[in-house]
Design a protein that fits this description.
about 70 residues, mainly alpha, two-stranded antiparallel ribbon
Length: about 70
């Protein structure tokens, strides 16, 4: 049984799409590797946590306003 041949969207090289291939189905294994390795989480300091909290609060408020405003 042969695997389907795909073309990588990053480097435009052909590769075989195998069932247990890590990464995206439209990227070759070489282009998928760095993305999985780079995705480490680093600890945030207090200022970054506060900024994220305020940003999320503003997003929630905007969504709430869009969902529940009265169009009269």
């Amino acid at each position: 049984m042969s695997f389907p041949i795909k073309v990588c969207v990053v480097c435009s090289e052909e590769f075989e799409l195998k069932p247990d291939k890590p990464g995206f189905a439209n990227r070759c294994p070489a282009c998928s590797e760095p993305e999985s390795a780079v995705g480490g989480n680093r600890p945030m300091d207090a200022n970054e946590r506060k900024a994220h909290s305020e940003l999320n609060e503003a997003r929630r408020g905007a969504i709430r306003e869009l969902l529940y405003r009265k169009d009269s």
